[in-house]
Structure prediction request, 249 residues.
Amino acid sequence: MKKIQVRDLDLFYGEVQALKKINLDVEENSVLALIGPSGCGKSTFIRTLNRMNDLIEGVKIKGTVLLDGQDIYKEVDVIELRKKVGMVFQKPNPFPMTVYDNVAYGPRIHGIKDKKKLNEIVEMSLVAAALWDEVKDRLHKSALGLSGGQQQRLCIARTLAIEPEVILMDEPTSALDPISTMKIEELIDELKNKYTIIIVTHNMQQAGRVSDYTAFFLNGELIESGPTDRVFYNPKDKRTEDYITGRFG
Ligand SMILES: Nc1ncnc2c1ncn2[C@@H]1O[C@H](COP(=O)(O)OP(=O)(O)OP(=O)(O)O)[C@@H](O)[C@H]1O
Prediction:
């Protein structure tokens, strides 16, 4: 099933066109990797999927983005949209509060006050983010005392706590060491059973390891997309081949 359908999407920062006629479908319960050289529009594209670009002045967007068949720019409330489409950023950005409060933050904002219910959500989210065993004895200590890799998994737990359907990840491991990176990659593999995941990565090996589908961007255009094995081993476009084999970028 198609979870997201993007049709003829253009995005302008003032006069500069950063996305050009993007057409792309995202399958439910799959991992899509967005690859391409610096400045080609990957982050801009991922941000159009939960309307994060709305916050930037001078941005103009044309075309449609459908989530479960609904136009997110016309038919969906932004608060509802952000609940359905969670985001994890490049640098782990836990709030300066306890581990527990970080995870409980979203559910509390959405009106959950019951202590027992919150305890349940916090534990479930930390288990799902493969962090529970490492933090269960320090739930009420500051999240800033965790390692970078633990902080990133905490940010994933914080995202899971609001029960999203889609998770956007913008280079989630680029600030992490190899072992933390491996843990996040294993986690992505687990999470795709339940969620639809879109990940921006500069790391070809990572795209190859974690994704089912790959989309290659260049200068604001989507050059090609398809099953990762096909795009990697049998690219249709010469530019995709050149990028994947490291000839530029
Ligand atoms: N807030 C902004 N205002 C104006 N131009 C922007 C803004 N954000 C990005 N751009 C421009 O849009 C283009 C695409 O940038 P974007 O960050 O989406 O690329 P990217 O592929 O994610 O790059 P990287 O891999 O380096 O993160 C670039 O030319 C960039 O300079």
